[in-house]
Inverse folding.
């Protein structure tokens, strides 16, 4: 027992009182708990302030920005949400088309990259082959580069895959075929399509997914696979019926982290896509900004921001147990 605890001064005894309820380990005096609570409240207020400000703007019927910082709505108007859902931008594209493009791109890229990454990670984790360490380093190298730095080579690569009408019923598939004269009429350009953006985003998502899953697969005991092999299971059965079910928590974490990046991705689609029918919600949110702050419909901009952020929150709530389990499991190998 410390000297402060034995003190007859009631103030000193109050501030040094152990209120943590811990029997063993380090005591947590009252004054430390108060400081920690104040710190957490400060962090919570700092995080919640911009969110509450955006929510307040979204419930406003005025398009102008408030002259003061309001964090609690003075009115509950759903005009901005209705306008966004009816006509998000001046382009002839509906909200459902934008939502479908974003979901198709995010979920498609997430699932394909997850499937490719888990097979590659399993190979790196279980098989011993030549150049294994070198290949792992090569997979890691793209993580050291900014994603936008890879946009130019991907743009040039995907732009070379085109389907052109050369006339007289002749169709050319570049770069394998070319028209005799000129480039012809371009019927399909892989770069200017959701398919091309998906390929580019998969290329950027794979390195992190492979490394993240490889570390987790290393923690799965090989004895389970050996026992299944003795019972007569083949390689496919071991992978799909034993390894994949055990890796579901980390698969959920990898998919969720990838989904956040894919859903909010702006640079790649904005650089590659030119047709309004292929735009995503993130691109539409940027389109709502004008040259000057006074020309921005702030209530509709805030409503669109809330709508864009909502699916990420829903996915997190749906996968919360798997995400928490995947983040905590695998910390200690054995």
């Amino acid at each position: 027992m410390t000297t402060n605890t034995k003190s007859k001064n009631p103030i000193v005894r109050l501030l040094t009182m152990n209120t943590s309820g811990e029997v063993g380990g380090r005591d947590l005096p009252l004054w430390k708990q108060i400081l920690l609570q104040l710190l957490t409240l400060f962090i919570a207020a700092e995080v919640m302030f911009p969110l509450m400000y955006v929510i307040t703007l979204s419930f406003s019927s005025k398009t102008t920005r408030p002259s003061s910082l309001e964090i609690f709505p003075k009115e509950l108007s759903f005009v901005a949400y209705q306008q966004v859902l009816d006509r998000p931008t001046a382009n002839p594209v509906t909200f459902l088309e934008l939502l479908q493009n974003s979901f198709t791109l995010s979920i498609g890229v997430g699932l394909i990259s997850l499937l490719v990454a888990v097979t590659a990670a399993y190979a790196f984790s279980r098989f011993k082959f030549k150049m294994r360490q070198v290949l792992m380093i090569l997979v890691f190298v793209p993580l050291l580069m900014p994603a936008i730095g890879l946009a130019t080579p991907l743009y040039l690569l995907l732009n070379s895959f085109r389907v052109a009408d050369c006339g007289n019923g002749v169709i050319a598939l570049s770069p394998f075929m070319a028209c005799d004269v000129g480039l012809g009429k371009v019927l399909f350009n892989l770069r200017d399509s959701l398919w091309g953006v998906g390929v580019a985003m998969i290329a950027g998502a794979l390195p992190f997914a492979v490394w993240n899953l490889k570390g987790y697969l290393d923690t799965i005991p090989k004895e389970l696979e050996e026992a299944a092999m003795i019972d007569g299971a083949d390689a496919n059965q071991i992978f799909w019926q034993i390894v994949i079910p055990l890796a579901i928590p980390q698969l959920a974490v990898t998919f969720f982290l990838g989904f956040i990046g894919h859903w909010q991705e702006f640079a790649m689609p904005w650089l590659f896509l030119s047709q309004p029918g292929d735009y995503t919600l993130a691109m539409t949110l940027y389109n709502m900004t004008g040259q000057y702050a006074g020309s921005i419909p702030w209530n509709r901009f805030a409503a669109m921001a809330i709508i864009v952020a909502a699916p990420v929150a829903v996915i997190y709530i749906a996968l919360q147990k798997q995400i928490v389990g995947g983040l905590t499991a695998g910390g200690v190998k054995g």
In short: Confidence is low (pLDDT under 50) at residues 1-5, 330-334. Residues 216 and 330 are 6 Å apart (CA to CA).
